[in-house]
Amino acid sequence: QVQLVESGGGLVQAGGSLRLSCAASGSIFIINTMGWYRQAPGKQRELVTTITTGGGTNYADSVKGRFTISRDNAKNTVYLQMSSLKPEDTAVYYCYFRGANEAGWMTTYWGQGTQVTVSS
Question: What mean pLDDT do residues 61-74 have?
Answer without folding.
Answer: 94
